[in-house]
Design a protein that fits this description.
Elements (H helix, E strand, L loop, with lengths): L1 H43 E2 L9 E6 L3 H12 L1 E2 L2 E8 L10 E4 L7 H7 L6 E4 L11 E6 L2 E6 L1 H6 L3 E2 L1 H6 L1 E2 L1
Parallel strand pairs: 2-4, 2-5, 5-6, 6-7, 8-10
Antiparallel strand pairs: 1-9, 3-4, 7-8
Helix pairs in contact: 1-2
Length: 175
């Protein structure tokens, strides 16, 4: 009887480990894809002229695996010949003018104050939690039918003085 219980416990532990490993691989893949999407957005969004000078700045609030992913892209890529500068902010108060502001899901509770902070800037606000597109994020990553997708809030984009090329809106879930 004890050996059956031990075997059951071991089997459950192994299954849990496999599930957690699969989840972390899935999350790592999603992070990589989201990083590629964020870089791709730079080709389909037009910022006002005053935001097209100097480094192209992407700010991330808090800790996120996205920091490493975007840093890797920033080392290899440019945006219209401009270097990509990645800035990590620990709070909304630390956000300076940037082209893209990324709020990872762990920082989603800061969306309202972040939007208030960047309200007059042409900043593409990108989030990754269900429902944030409708709450004012410009672009929000979601999972649809098991696949990574993104919502685009056209009113938020217009409010931030940004223009989006039709090709991007065709690929988005426009809200």
């Amino acid at each position: 009887m004890k050996s059956k219980i031990k075997l059951s416990v071991i089997l459950k532990s192994v299954l849990l480990s496999v599930f957690l490993l699969a989840s972390s691989v899935g999350n790592a893949q999603d992070t990589k894809l989201q990083g590629i999407f964020i870089y791709s957005f730079t080709r389909y969004v037009q910022w006002p002229d005053e935001f097209n000078q100097g480094d192209f700045v992407i700010t991330i609030i808090g800790d996120s695996p996205m920091v490493a992913e975007l840093q890797s892209l920033a080392e290899k890529k440019k945006v219209d010949g401009r270097a990509i500068k990645l800035v990590k902010a620990n709070s909304v108060a630390e956000i300076k003018k940037c082209n893209i502001l990324f709020l990872p899901d762990t920082q989603s509770h800061l969306l309202a104050s972040a939007l208030s902070h960047v309200t007059d800037w042409p900043t593409l606000v990108v989030t990754q939690q269900e429902g944030l597109g409708k709450k004012g994020s410009c672009i929000n990553f979601i999972t649809k039918e098991g696949n990574l997708a993104f919502e685009m809030n056209m009113a938020a984009i217009a409010k931030h003085q940004l223009k989006v090329f039709a090709e991007l809106t065709r690929r988005a879930i426009v809200i």
